[in-house]
Amino acid sequence: MSTQCFIYKNWEQLSLKASFFPAAKTAAKNRTILYFHGGGFLFGEREDLQPYLELFLESGLNVLSFDYPLAPETPLSEIVDCLEEAVRWFLENYQTQLKLSEPDFFLFGRSAGGYLASILTTNNYEHQRGLIRFYGYHHFDHSDFVLPNAFYQRFPKVPPLIAQQSIKKRPTIDGTLAERFSLYLSARQYGNWLSYLGPITDKLTVNTEQLEQFPPVFMAHCQNDPDVPIDSSRQLSEAVEHCLFLELDLAEHDFDREENPAATEVYQKLIDWLNDQTQG
């Protein structure tokens, strides 16, 4: 699997990077997935899609996965601003840097990355052909986000003052699971997650009118997701004209964390859907 690394933005002494994985089929250079990782904005790494990359590449799809600065060192509003720059970088460099023939793209995000893909979709990009969202959301108006989470209460308590020791003094993109998950765990245990994201303004919420303008959407979400309520995905599926929504009868959040038959089936359906969008 070949890969290239590019800097899409220098910001606050950070080099924000993108990993580019070109399609295995050299003739198919007109479909690119722009991918954003999850992690509650507090942790995560840009190349966490590895178990499923081959499926995309063998199907003739390019994948471009992005860094973004993490909260709470960077407020969510600025995270979104950086990723708007990421999309702009792709559109300005798809020919010269990536050697692609077409700028057509799909935004893909999982969990918090699904939120980021959703909020970016409100920009109505001319060349965006669709949105892919796995167990994501498009607003923060969920009681689950502001109350102690029952699922995370099962883990040993991490007091906020202990968890906050992993917060750095300057913006960072370094958010490995080992280093930063305790911060997210504590935030969900104590119901103070949103306090780490900075002001949640109207600009950071996707409303129904905006959803109605969305391009075709592919979504997957477990019915009994213990982390992100499925309600947001159901709301989006009802508002968007062209939406393929897979509700999985599972009590998992990131059902595709590791390769398994259910996840492989979902990704194969996603590949079929992507092929349909391109042919259409």
Automatic annotation (TrEMBL):
Keywords: Hydrolase
Domain of life: Bacteria
Signal peptide: none
The protein, known as: Alpha/beta hydrolase
InterPro entries associated with the record: AB_hydrolase_3 (IPR013094), AB_hydrolase_fold (IPR029058), GDXG_lipolytic_enzyme (IPR050300)
Gene Ontology MF: a single term: hydrolase activity
Domain spans labelled Alpha/beta hydrolase fold-3: 33-226
Pfam families reported for this sequence: Abhydrolase_3
Transmembrane segments: none
SUPFAM superfamilies reported for this sequence: alpha/beta-Hydrolases (SSF53474)
